[in-house]
């Protein structure tokens, strides 16, 4: 067997041009499939980050009644011990309190319903980097009695930094809530709808406004990898009191998951078509190789080498081409997609407008999840191995007289 491997390896490099063309076809196949999958999954990651990170979080600990009736009456007091335990769970990057409610936001002439979010400014900014999205003024700091509002809301109310926002709402246990809040900053939120309605306050200021002292509507749990939410949920379930529950982003935003799953199904169909094109491309290269070597096979068989051994050599050569091409393709596709991972492709025109409607940034993002790359390498290698059946069949049907004339 060792002799056959040596012979196959030497046969490959007797005609370097032919071998390089064959390997290049495999490299390009791996690169194309990996690039497509990385772009597809990267767009999903971006959609999840923009829709989840800036609002629901990846997981939320809530009162058991809160999700069905999202009002301040179903808020709860978060024990420091529970928060510390959750923060120590593997893959948890942040645990922060939020107090969410609604209010009528107004100036002296206009008013508009607004979504009010009381946050822990420093903790939120570490994950969402909201401070980098400030268009004017500054982001909140702990203890601020000021507000940061979406640029769409600021434009509608004709307010700027330093102006006063009037808010009127209903507080905890039906207490009347009203207040005047200086505007510290104006933020351009990635989600268009949030940008038109969102008001950020420091959580203590929000608690004071709503008379919900020491209470939170949710304990938001963040992670750097949305694929890890299920194991985090299981760990949190074990330490939660009976009057609390934990929900993942897929449970809080099922419509988003449905959109992703539907689009992923279409992407897999497109990938299947791509694999079919790849298979035909590789098959044409193998046909070229076999047809060029008909005389070589005929002479080799004429001098005494059995067809079975010739077929084995051709099989090993094809597997070598597949293995080398897939390995090089994996390395090139990794660095190729890594560049676009750090330099996403900007979109313009109708495509950018459509993505803005769904709360996504107008860029084509890429994912660097390892399985996206080695899965493509494995599939392309399997395709190249199946294509090896053709040269084996061709050799088994070899006729010396015909082959010697070719």
Q: Which strand order does the major sheet show?
A: 2-3-8-5-7-6
- The portion of residues forming beta strands comes to 15-25%
Low-confidence stretches: none
SSE series: HHEHEEHEEHEEHEHEHEHHHHEHEHHH
| Count of beta strands | 12
Description:
There is one protein chain. By secondary structure, this protein is of the alpha+beta class. It has two domains: 2-51 and 257-405, no CATH class; 65-242, no CATH class. It is built from 16 helices and twelve strands. Strands 2-3-8-5-7-6 form a six-stranded mixed beta barrel, surrounded by four helices. The mean pLDDT is 84.
Any chance you could write out the topology, listing elements then pairs?
Layout: H1 2-12, H2 16-56, E1 59-63, H3 80-87, E2 92-106, E3 111-119, H4 121-128, E4 134-137, E5 147-150, H5 151-157, E6 164-170, E7 176-187, H6 192-197, E8 198-202, H7 203-210, E9 218-223, H8 229-237, E10 244-248, H9 249-252, H10 254-292, H11 294-302, H12 307-342, E11 345-346, H13 349-357, E12 363-364, H14 370-387, H15 389-396, H16 400-405
Parallel strand pairs: 3-8, 5-7
Antiparallel strand pairs: 1-9, 1-10, 2-3, 2-6, 2-9, 4-7, 5-8, 6-7, 11-12
């Amino acid at each position: 067997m060792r002799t056959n491997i040596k012979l196959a390896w030497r046969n490959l490099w007797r005609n370097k041009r032919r071998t390089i063309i064959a390997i290049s076809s495999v490299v390009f196949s791996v690169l194309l499939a990996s690039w497509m999958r990385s772009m597809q999954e990267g767009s999903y990651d971006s959609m999840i980050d923009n829709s989840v990170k800036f609002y629901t979080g990846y997981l939320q600990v809530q009162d058991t009644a809160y999700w069905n009736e999202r009002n301040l009456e179903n808020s709860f007091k978060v024990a420091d011990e529970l928060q510390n335990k959750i923060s120590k769970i593997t893959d948890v990057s942040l645990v922060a309190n939020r107090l969410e409610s609604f209010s009528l936001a107004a100036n002296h002439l206009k008013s508009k319903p607004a979504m009010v979010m009381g946050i822990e400014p420093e903790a939120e900014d570490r994950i969402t980097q909201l401070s980098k999205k400030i268009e004017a003024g500054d982001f909140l700091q702990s203890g601020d009695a000021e507000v940061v509002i979406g640029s769409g809301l600021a434009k509608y109310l004709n307010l700027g930094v330093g102006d006063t926002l009037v808010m009127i709402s209903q507080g905890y246990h039906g207490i009347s809530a009203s207040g005047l809040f200086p505007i510290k900053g104006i933020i351009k939120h990635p989600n268009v709808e949030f940008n038109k309605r969102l008001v950020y306050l420091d959580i203590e200021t929000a608690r004071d406004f709503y008379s919900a002292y020491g209470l939170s509507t949710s304990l938001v749990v963040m992670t750097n990898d949305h694929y890890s939410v299920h194991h985090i949920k299981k760990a949190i379930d074990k330490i939660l009191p009976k009057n609390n529950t934990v929900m993942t982003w897929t449970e809080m935003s099922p419509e988003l998951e449905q959109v992703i799953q539907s689009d992923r199904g279409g992407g897999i169909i497109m990938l299947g078509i791509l694999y079919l094109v790849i298979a035909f491309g590789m098959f044409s290269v193998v046909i070229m190789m076999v047809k060029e070597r008909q005389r070589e096979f005929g002479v080799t068989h004429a001098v005494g080498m059995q067809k079975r051994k010739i077929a084995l050599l051709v099989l090993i050569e094809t597997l070598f081409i597949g293995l080398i091409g897939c390995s090089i393709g994996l390395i090139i596709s990794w660095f190729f997609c890594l560049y676009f991972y750090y330099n996403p492709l900007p979109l313009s025109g109708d495509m950018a407008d459509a993505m803005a409607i769904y709360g996504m940034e107008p860029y084509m993002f890429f994912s660097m999840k390892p399985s996206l790359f080695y899965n493509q390498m494995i599939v392309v290698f399997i395709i190249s191995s199946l294509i090896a059946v053709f040269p084996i069949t061709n050799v088994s049907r070899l006729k010396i007289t015909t082959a010697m004339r070719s």
